[in-house]
């Protein structure tokens, strides 16, 4: 019980450190402000009265292909971005995320047909590109989270950071659901779906304004002072069994 209380005190002291709460807040905003329009797009994909009227099996295949494509995102990060400062990584990734978000808008507005690209080809390309960029965007957040964990409570504090990220994802879904409801997007009415996607893209762009919260250090730098917890009245080091 005492060790648990010491860990809680250590996490509280750590989260108050500006070098920790600022990037944590940025990661929350990055996830929360990208409101989810997944439900509306899924029903639009499969509605027989709406274009493109994909089968549910084909939609499942699209997501499977996208999952495989995300591996490419990991490789791109490893080869091209991992040595950049975190702020540069997150800035580039967020701008790419905004750009790929426009592909959804192009698809919903049927602009791909005007360009001579079939629905089936476009949606596969869009899903692959989106998954790659999403992986490029999330990977530096995970790496940054590992650098924010002080010695002695690494596991507990990393779990806390993952909870903050999960809260950001949940906030995205809640906000997306409210936006779709406010715009009267239903399982059969998709007239305002394009506007919901436009709002989502605008919020993704707005996230760039919070980039100052992220550190300018890179993955080889020490972000947490070694003595951050040394002045605590309790010993936060893991005791030897």
From TrEMBL:
Main localization of the protein described in the UniProt heading: membrane
Keyword Transmembrane helix in record: yes
Subcellular locations according to the entry: Membrane
GO cellular component: membrane
The UniProt record lists the keyword Lyase: no
Superkingdom of origin organism: Eukaryota
A Pfam family annotated for this UniProt entry: BT1
Transmembrane segments: 20-38, 58-78, 90-109
Membrane topology: Multi-pass membrane protein
Alphabetical UniProt keywords: Membrane, Transmembrane, Transmembrane helix, Transport
Family assignment from sequence similarity: Belongs to the major facilitator superfamily. Folate-biopterin transporter (TC 2.A.71) family.
Protein's recorded name: Uncharacterized protein
